[in-house]
Design a protein that fits this description.
By secondary structure, the chain is mainly α. It has helices at residues 15-47, 59-78, 84-89, 92-117, 122-128, 132-143, 150-168, 183-205, 211-234, 245-271, 275-282, 285-297, 303-329, 337-342. The longest helix is centred in the first third of the chain and has 33 residues, at 15-47.
């Protein structure tokens, strides 16, 4: 049964759970890492099958409809936590925080990432997006007064260097379309910043909200907020193809598997693994993301991707080694749901929330 709150710690169960837990996490990381490439592939597919002269699998339609499909899976799973009494138990400050988190990290952040995917290589989005852990660490030090150890600081610096190398080593002569810090990379950075702000706010205000309630309510609010903003910005006809059968046949699969099942596997894996195992598996998400782009889109990685990606992985491993050591020093429970819940977005874009 899912943990009852975001800060609930659950020790790994005996041998069988320790064997199955990493399997859940690996499947979740692979699904999340593939989401960027799958979104690009579906968008290209929609461009070849226009409805009323428009692409039915537009970024806005994907975000809106995939969240609806994910809710069809998540609500039955967490229905025992989504009760009227649980909703009434939320304080006004928690409701305000929940709406802000849903708007910032549940609607704005994925919308920016979706748009970035239409403007630059998926590999660039994956690697530039790895600036998130260093930014999160800096904000945690500044706003939450956390004290990282030297390994976490070193890992943050190395990961930042890896992101810079990914940008700097690509140029007009690097092959492909030629890289510059264009709108795709800028939108990725803005999406990362929005996600980090939402995560910090979650950690400060919402850590005691039941996990199932938090997940479903946040997704519901973010879907409504995104729909309203898109209508206000682009007009009432913006979602004219949102209920196209062609779109829904793909979104039922995408929203259910990537967004919903991916999250369920992720949280189930966290309950059955040690912190060290979860952190190590999570470190390979950029590698999996680039691999998915190559496999699904035939996007051939450039030298900058190999160099920058390698440096980023080294930085993540250093940082997470420091996190594991710090947890051991404090004798924290091995599968600290709170810690891993708040690093949830470090897996990369999850296709919806």
């Amino acid at each position: 049964m899912p943990p009852t709150s975001l800060n609930q710690n659950t020790a790994p169960e005996p041998t069988a759970s320790l064997r199955s837990g990493p399997v859940y996490l690996w499947f979740a990381v692979i699904l999340f890492a593939a989401s960027n490439a799958i979104v690009r592939k579906l968008t290209d597919l929609g461009a070849q099958n226009l409805v009323n002269g428009h692409n039915p699998i537009s970024p806005c339609n994907v975000l809106f409809v995939s969240n609806l499909c994910a809710l069809l899976v998540l609500v039955p799973v967490y229905y025992r936590q989504i009760t009227w009494s649980a909703l009434k138990a939320l304080s006004p400050r928690q409701w305000v925080a929940l709406v802000l988190v849903a708007a910032i990290s549940g609607a704005l952040a994925p919308a920016l990432i979706f748009q970035a995917l239409t403007l630059t290589m998926v590999s660039n989005v994956v690697l530039v997006g790895r600036i998130e852990p260093p930014v999160l660490l800096l904000l945690s030090v500044w706003l939450l007064k956390e004290r990282p150890n030297r390994w976490e600081i070193l890992g943050m610096m190395v990961s930042t260097v890896g992101v810079v190398l990914t940008v700097a080593l690509q140029g007009p002569g690097a092959g492909g379309s030629g890289f510059s810090l264009g709108w795709g990379e800028i939108l990725t950075l803005l999406g990362v910043l929005a996600g980090v702000v939402g995560r910090v706010l979650t950690k400060v205000r919402l850590k005691d909200v039941p996990l199932g309630l938090f997940t479903t309510v946040r997704m519901t609010i973010s879907t409504v907020v995104f729909f309203g903003l898109a209508i206000a910005l682009y007009g009432p006809n913006h979602f004219g193809e949102a209920f196209s059968p062609f779109l829904w046949q793909w979104m039922l699969l995408y929203g259910s598997v990537i967004v919903a099942v991916g999250q369920l596997l992720w949280f189930q894996g966290l309950r059955q693994t040690t912190t060290a195992q979860a952190l190590l598996i999570n470190s390979f998400s950029p590698v999996a993301g680039i691999g998915a782009a190559a496999l699904i889109l035939q996007e051939q990685p450039q030298v900058a991707h190999y160099v920058g990606g390698g440096v980023i992985v080294v930085g993540l491993l250093l940082s997470q080694y420091g996190t594991t050591r710090q947890a051991a020093t404090r004798r924290s429970p091995p599968a600290a749901i709170a810690t891993m819940q708040h690093m949830e977005a470090e897996v990369g874009f999850k296709g919806g929330t």
